[in-house]
Amino acid sequence: MAWYLPHNLSEMFIKKLLTIILIGISISLTNSFDVVAQEKYKVSEKDYANSDVDMADEMRANGKIYIVVATIVSIISGILVYLIMLDKKVKKLEDLTESIAKEKELQKS
Q1: Spatial contact of 70 and 29, defined as CB atoms under 8 Å apart
Q2: How many angstroms separate the CA atoms of 26 and 76, rounded?
Q3: Which of 24, 26, 103, 105 is deepest in the core (most CB within 10 A)?
């Protein structure tokens, strides 16, 4: 006995499954990093006058820069995937409106 879903349901099922898989991968990637809070430093008057910012060097030395990079890449890739999916939906709507307009034009003739 074959498992059959109508075209719209199977497409929706595949999209939901793909979304769940992508969320699972992103969660597993974020949990695989050793994420710890940064140490607390006492702020002094000298710190307010400091114009050198060595945050990137310190984060690179501690290995925390990779978490920042992974977060940025995840956000940008998520936005990119969303835009691609949105573009496909808009294209389908455009094609649908074109076909409806052609059918109405043929009916008038």
Answers
A1: yes
A2: 13
A3: 26
